[in-house]
């Protein structure tokens, strides 16, 4: 299981070369070098408040909101909790772990400071009580502990900061306070100078105070960095400085970095991070509130010159790293996905085993549109290792967003990498203010993406928007001047029909469809942005397409826009299904009113019919027209609700798609009754209301219908007869108001009629009443004829039936292999003229008639609905296999996917079960109760793909990838890589004799002797409870990984020893050479001077 997460209120800490992020949902995300991204979660569900790395030890301590400390082992591919310590009587407020120490200082809300042994994870008997740390004359409680740090000058001195403004330096050996400071303003944080002679505090009034240990009676400097002096001579009030860091530099002035402290004079100011370097003050404005920040330094020792080179800033919705080595402080380009929910995600699509060249081309185009001004240095985090695994293939995730944008993500590895961003709103004029029921939609998110259909081979993408519009894009590596073609479709039923009361009870209810086909229009008389009264709105779309010639950059370029029109003051119903085929050059879409087929090559509409007209003479039901016609108000209200149910009404929170059901549910009594009777127990008023949310329209299936009275299901009816209707004594069948929606569409080579001898292009249509219709087509094969001759299309009258709404179509050959849909090979229409490159379309077909044997046998059609699956033999249309998937629930998503060199039918049900069925026999292979449907977001975004993988949006900020394939699971273990890679710890600088003699005796401080059980005794058992971590195999893995780490450290030490011995040998050889040279020169001098007299010198 892999989770791709954006940060949301995550505290931050440092581990040499990797960072953990802890969101408020009890999870920890550890980031290393690009590609190393680990996500783990606490079982307790408590929010993570603070993190402390055991630097270069492969361990992490987390402090949670339930006052529990957890020790994580990072030496294994999947981090696990080794120990937990639960505080019972005090609440944890702050933690501090000195470098290379195994004793953790824990401050509490009561003002006490406890000490925890990291190795055994038990409390020491040594406790610093708040009443001993403060002055005896103090009459008030100092408040919770907000800061703990050991003195750089002496590790035996601990600086304790209390919220009330009191600071004390505690002598750990003498068990007494060296000095106490009482300041008028509350303290939020503190930071030492590396020499340990002075420290800085940040306060609630926006001030910074500097204190010298020689004189602690008052601060020797108090500054208001953002406080201006007013005319009356007083300082203006400022916001609190929540955190400050004081870092020294060897070749320049110290860095003072803090968050907050702005004045209150201006409202609506953005959050800021201030960097003070000497007299220069730089204010960095952030897009989101600052949660935490931390300076990255060259040395881990607090008594050396820090030399900060970057600062990490964690925002509510982002993570940035600022380069401190350059004067303009640029930011590093973040290799991790932090902007998944930059705009709320409304739909997802998952494509595995894509063409290998699609990712590089998307990345190259997307890189041209990225922001500039990043730091030229490499990303400063370089911890951990990762691999691609043994059987990797290109994977791409598409996310549609509320602002109309679509993002392409590379999901081939563990982490996501954004490749390209497409903005669909650029195809339209900016909407003008409107009035009436559509005002809220058009003012909020008129371009929100509802559905995406992408063909990776032809690089064509179709986008369905919330305003009942479809945009077709083609990919090009060149910019071009283009004008978008607009088609307008009047897909609205006029007359109404109902089911005859004489229908058999087991027959599905049929929709009230128009007897007249919908009409198409090329132009509209009024602008969609004009203030036209809703009662007189007719034949106008919701949005206005740009009519002028526009210059489009390389990438996806809009070619065609299709919009549904208002009819008699009623807005268009949302589009519920879409399919595109690049080989045919056709696009089909439908909603609860009917079906439309568009030839996007010739820019014409081929078919536009109501659902009833699709049946023709093959209608199996008796229908009676009703007169007079009912009031349109009810239908119009439902249409508008279908448009506006995309998001919640609240704008103060992050809006999530398809989450609120209040607009589509019946009265509260009906809701309570249905919640108690629903067999799926997912908390929705009814299955009808859930389907309305899922498809975005007022849609009905034949086993549940909307009535004007409360629902009157019985559990027996829902179990025994999936086709049963809701019954009410006050409502007859003639008063039912139902609509049949087109729920799924699929182009493919098939047999449109039983008498067909050869397969032809066909369109398979599935409806919400479980009906399947086949529409054969005649498409010219020659390139010139295809661009000029019309495509003939017409319903054949073929009808198949299933229980529940039809969800998916797929085709198999008679050997059980999956038949892919035909496609057109991508060609760049805007490329330069090349005589060697053919300009004609190159098509790839996967027809079942590839051999004479299969031609005689036909092919298999797999049809899956909400309740059952069938395998149909074509062209005889005989049912070979049938399987009732569920009786107590219903299927939300179904796909035919390839797993382990075979194909199967994967289903996700509303009760949380994930099931797979073999093909073509439809035998159950797997049934796992994975995830109960607690949010409509999951239903809208859940999707399967090849390789036994699936994806869904688990929260507004998290994309969750799962696998149900053992092969993929094993490969995932290889892709996880290693979080802990042992490196050589830098040696501490030699302080020299004088500094060591006069600077204190920090090197003689033995924490074990002071905090151990022999000296401090045992802590009270009632204060904290030790909880052991995972045992069994996990413990063995931990032990094994610990041994591996010890061996690695021993190997490094051995290498260092060998290197030093080699250096010593080199020095010895050099000294020997020098000695021989000296001896030679001395002997020569002796021979030269041997026979000389004394007076000859």
From TrEMBL:
Matches recorded under PROSITE patterns:
V_SNARE (PS50892)
UniProt GO molecular function: GTPase activator activity; myosin II binding; syntaxin binding
User: Spans of biased composition, class Polar residues?
Assistant: 504-525
Intracellular or extracellular location(s):
Cell membrane; Cytoplasm
* Disordered: annotated span: 504-538, 709-735
Q: Output the GO biological process annotations, alphabetical, semicolon-separated.
A: exocytosis; Golgi to plasma membrane transport; protein transport
One GO cellular component term, please give it: plasma membrane
Q: Does the keyword Cytoplasm apply?
A: yes
Superkingdom assignment: Eukaryota
Q: Where is the composition biased (Low complexity)?
A: 723-733
Tell me which InterPro entries the record gives: Lethal2_giant (IPR000664), LLGL2 (IPR013577), V_SNARE_CC (IPR042855), WD40/YVTN_repeat-like_dom_sf (IPR015943), WD40_repeat_dom_sf (IPR036322), WD40_rpt (IPR001680)
- Gene3D superfamilies per UniProt: 1.20.5.110, YVTN repeat-like/Quinoprotein amine dehydrogenase
**Ranges where the V-SNARE coiled-coil homology domain occurs:** 1032-1092
Similarity field: Belongs to the WD repeat L(2)GL family.
- Protein name as it appears in the record: Syntaxin-binding protein 5-like
Q: Which organism is it from?
A: Cottoperca gobio
């Amino acid at each position: 299981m892999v989770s791709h997460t954006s940060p949301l209120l995550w505290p931050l800490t440092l581990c040499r070369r990797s960072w953990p992020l802890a969101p408020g949902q009890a999870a920890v995300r550890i980031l290393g070098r690009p590609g190393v991204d680990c996500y783990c979660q606490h079982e307790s569900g408590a929010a993570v408040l603070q993190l402390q790395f055991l630097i270069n030890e492969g361990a992490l301590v987390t402090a949670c909101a339930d006052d529990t400390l957890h020790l994580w082992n990072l030496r294994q591919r999947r981090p696990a909790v080794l120990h937990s310590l639960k505080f019972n009587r005090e609440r944890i407020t702050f933690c501090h772990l000195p470098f290379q120490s195994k004793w953790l200082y824990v401050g509490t809300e009561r003002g006490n400071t406890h000490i925890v042994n990291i190795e055994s994870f038990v409390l020491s008997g040594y406790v610093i009580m708040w009443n001993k740390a403060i002055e005896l004359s103090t009459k008030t409680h100092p408040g919770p502990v907000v800061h703990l740090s050991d003195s750089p000058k002496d590790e035996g001195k601990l600086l304790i900061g209390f919220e009330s403004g009191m600071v004390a330096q505690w002598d750990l050996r003498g068990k007494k306070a060296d000095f106490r400071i009482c300041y008028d303003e509350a303290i939020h944080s503190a930071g030492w100078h590396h020499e340990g002679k002075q420290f800085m505090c940040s306060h609630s009034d926006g001030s910074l105070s500097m204190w010298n240990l020689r004189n602690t009676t008052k601060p020797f400097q108090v500054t208001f960095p953002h406080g201006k002096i007013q005319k009356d001579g007083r300082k203006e009030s400022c916001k609190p400085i929540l955190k400050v860091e004081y870092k020294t530099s060897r070749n320049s002035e110290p860095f003072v970095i803090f968050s907050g402290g702005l004045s209150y004079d201006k409202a609506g100011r953005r959050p800021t991070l201030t960097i003070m370097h000497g007299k220069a003050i730089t204010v960095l404005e952030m897009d989101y509130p600052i949660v935490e920040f931390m300076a990255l330094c060259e040395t881990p020792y607090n008594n050396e010159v820090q030399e900060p080179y970057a600062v990490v800033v964690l925002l509510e919705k982002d993570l940035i790293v600022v380069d401190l080595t350059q004067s303009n402080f640029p930011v590093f380009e973040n290799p991790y996905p932090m902007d998944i929910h930059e705009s709320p995600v409304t739909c997802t699509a998952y494509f595995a085993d894509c063409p290998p060249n699609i990712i590089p081309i998307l990345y190259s185009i997307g890189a041209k549109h990225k922001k500039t001004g990043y730091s030229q240095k490499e990303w400063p985090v370089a911890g951990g290792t990762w691999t691609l695994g043994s059987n990797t293939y290109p994977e791409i995730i598409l996310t549609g967003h509320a602002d109309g944008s679509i993002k392409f993500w590379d999901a081939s590895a563990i982490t996501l990498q954004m490749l390209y961003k497409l903005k669909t709103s650029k195809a339209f004029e900016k909407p003008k203010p409107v009035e009436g029921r559509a005002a809220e939609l058009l003012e909020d998110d008129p371009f929100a993406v509802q559905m995406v259909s992408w063909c990776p081979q032809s690089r064509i993408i179709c986008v369905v928007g919330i305003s009942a519009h479809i945009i077709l894009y083609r990919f090009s590596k060149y910019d071009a001047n283009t004008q978008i073609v607009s088609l307008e479709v009047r897909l609205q039923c006029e007359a109404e029909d109902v089911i005859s009361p004489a229908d058999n009870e087991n027959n599905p209810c049929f929709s009230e469809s128009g007897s007249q086909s919908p009409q198409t229009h090329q132009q509209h008389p009024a602008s969609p942005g004009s203030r036209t009264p809703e009662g007189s709105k007719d034949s106008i779309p919701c949005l206005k397409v740009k009519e002028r010639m526009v210059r489009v950059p390389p990438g996806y370029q809009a070619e065609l826009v299709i919009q549904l029109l208002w009819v008699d003051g009623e807005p268009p119903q949302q589009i519920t299904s879409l399919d595109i085929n690049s080989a045919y050059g056709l696009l089909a879409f439908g909603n609860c009113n009917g079906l439309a087929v568009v030839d996007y090559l010739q820019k014409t509409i081929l078919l536009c019919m109501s659902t009833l007209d699709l049946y023709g003479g093959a209608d199996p039901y008796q229908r009676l027209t009703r007169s007079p016609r009912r009031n349109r108000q009810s239908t119009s209200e439902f249409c508008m609700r279908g448009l506006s149910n995309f998001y919640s009404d609240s704008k103060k929170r992050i809006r999530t798609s398809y989450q609120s059901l209040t607009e589509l549910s019946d009265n509260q009594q009906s809701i309570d009754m249905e919640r108690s009777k629903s067999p799926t127990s997912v908390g929705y008023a009814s299955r009808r209301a859930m389907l309305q949310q899922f498809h975005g329209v007022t849609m009905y299936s034949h086993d549940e219908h909307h009535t004007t009275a409360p629902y009157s299901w019985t559990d027996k009816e829902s179990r025994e007869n999936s086709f049963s209707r809701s019954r009410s004594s006050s409502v007859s069948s003639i008063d039912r108001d139902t609509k049949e929606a087109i729920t799924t569409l699929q182009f493919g080579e098939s047999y449109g009629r039983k008498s067909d001898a050869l397969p032809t292009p066909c369109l398979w249509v599935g409806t919400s009443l479980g009906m399947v219709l086949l529409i054969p087509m005649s498409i010219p094969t020659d390139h010139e004829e295809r661009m000029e001759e019309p495509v003939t299309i017409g319903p054949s009258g073929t009808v198949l039936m299933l229980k529940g709404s039809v969800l998916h179509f797929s085709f198999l050959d008679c050997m059980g292999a999956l038949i892919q849909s035909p496609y057109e090979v991508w060609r760049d229409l805007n490329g330069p003229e090349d005589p060697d490159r053919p300009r004609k379309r190159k098509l790839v077909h996967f027809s079942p008639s590839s051999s004479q044997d299969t031609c005689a046998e036909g092919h298999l059609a797999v049809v899956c609905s909400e309740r059952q699956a069938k395998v149909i033999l074509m062209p005889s249309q005989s049912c070979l296999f049938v399987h009732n998937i569920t009786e107590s629930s219903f299927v939300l998503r179904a796909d035919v996917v390839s797993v382990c060199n075979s194909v199967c039918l994967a289903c996700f049900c509303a009760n949380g079960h994930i099931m797979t069925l073999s093909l073509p026999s439809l035998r159950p292979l797997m049934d796992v109760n994975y995830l109960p449907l607690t949010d409509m977001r999951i239903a809208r975004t859940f999707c399967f793909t090849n390789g036994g993988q699936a994806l869904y949006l688990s929260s507004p900020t998290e994309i969750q990838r799962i696998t149900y394939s053992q092969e993929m699971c094993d490969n995932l273990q290889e892709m996880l890589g290693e979080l802990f890679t042992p490196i050589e710890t830098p040696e501490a600088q030699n302080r020299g004799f004088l500094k060591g003699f006069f600077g204190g005796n920090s090197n003689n401080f033995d924490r074990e002797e002071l905090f151990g059980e022999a000296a401090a005794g045992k802590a009270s058992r009632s204060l904290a409870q030790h909880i052991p971590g995972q045992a069994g195999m996990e413990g063995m893995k931990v032990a094994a990984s610990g041994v591996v780490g010890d061996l690695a450290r021993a190997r490094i030490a051995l290498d260092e020893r060998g290197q030093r011995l080699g250096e010593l040998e080199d020095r010895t050889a050099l000294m020997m050479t020098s000695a021989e040279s000296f001896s030679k020169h001395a002997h020569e001098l002796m021979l030269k001077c041997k026979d000389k007299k004394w007076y000859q010198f």
